[in-house]
Amino acid sequence: MDSVGVRMSKVLPSVALGVTAFLLLFGNSVVPFTVLREECLDKVAYNGLGFKELDIFLCTLVLFFKQALASDVGKWVSGYTLSLYLSVLVFMAVEGSRFRAGFFLSLTPLYYFLSQAAGVSVVLPAIWLPIYLLYDAGNRHIDLFADKKISVIRVAAIGFFLLFVVLNILGLFFPFQIRELELAILLFQVSPIAVALFWLPFATTEGSSQIHGHKSVLALHLVYVGIGVVWHLVAILFVISDPELPMQAFSLLISWKTEEFAVYFLIIDGLILFLAFLYLVLLEDGVLASISVTVGSLVFGPAAAFSLYFVYREQQISKSFQMAQKENKKRN
């Protein structure tokens, strides 16, 4: 296990990424969010819950995503960011569900809530990843194999309930009428938090089968490899239809209008999220793995590339367990 000093040094670049995301997103957000808030005050854009400030906040989020999805470039960017977000949600859920994950790492619903409220590109590198690194949760030494145990039932519950988030995100791209689209956006704000509460009762115990647990995690990540590849193919069709889309997205990093802020926000969200997990790959498996994920992102899409890495990572954890079993047999 790394010393506390080494772990702290690993945390600093991650926190720097989170701070950078916060400055890029919220340092430029006053005018765009003020405009959205005023629109919520001026007209009935969302039939609220009866609590004025909460209703205005939810209405602002609804209008934000409507703005992001109003253009082809917005849909293109949103698809990449949200598919990567799904892969990250799975990883966070799995790592927080292991037998000795640690109390703070296991607070998955809290991190989902913070991600929805403040942006995943801020919360993941500034809060979740530092906790993960301080716990040394990526350590695969054979003496720690029991710490990585996870219940098959817990993994099945994660897969089942996250399916509702997947369907919810699909609904954002469905050609709904305005009212139905607003409802889909509103549900997206709460669905990741709500579903995370449902799998909490299915805890990993000391008696959980480790080998079957690892196999179920592999299967779960492979599902999200498929989801990532499907979106990447759809995104390629978008570019074939309009070859200017990538350049339009890149130009928003340099300059954007108030009505384009939501797309800019999601571009930064996706880029920082990508860099944060690429940093994790670098720490755990080195430069070659990082290059492989980067190249894989171009070929299969970022979500699929990271999910493939998570598959590889789980295979390495499973090998550590098998090696530990062999060592135990030799001793006996």
Written description of the protein model:
Helices cover 78% and strands 0% of the residues. It has 332 residues and is an all-alpha fold. The chain has one domain (4-331). α1 (4-26) crosses α11 and α9 (210-241) runs antiparallel to α12. The mean pLDDT is 89. The chain crosses the membrane at residues 76-94, 110-135, 155-176, 183-202, 222-240, 261-282, 288-312. Keywords: Membrane, Transmembrane, Transmembrane helix.
Spell out the key features of this protein:
332 residues, 0% strand, transmembrane helix, membrane, transmembrane
Summarize the structure.
The protein has about 325 residues and is mainly α. The chain has helices at about 5-25, 30-40, 50-70, 70-95, 110-120, 120-135, 150-175, 180-200, 210-240, 245-255, 260-300, 300-330.
Write the layout of secondary structure elements.
Elements (H helix, E strand, L loop, with lengths): L3 H23 L3 H13 L9 H17 L3 H24 L12 H11 L1 H15 L17 H22 L4 H21 L11 H32 L3 H10 L6 H40 L1 H30 L1
Helix pairs in contact: 1-6, 1-11, 2-3, 3-8, 3-11, 4-7, 4-9, 4-10, 4-11, 4-12, 5-6, 5-8, 6-11, 7-8, 7-9, 9-12, 11-12
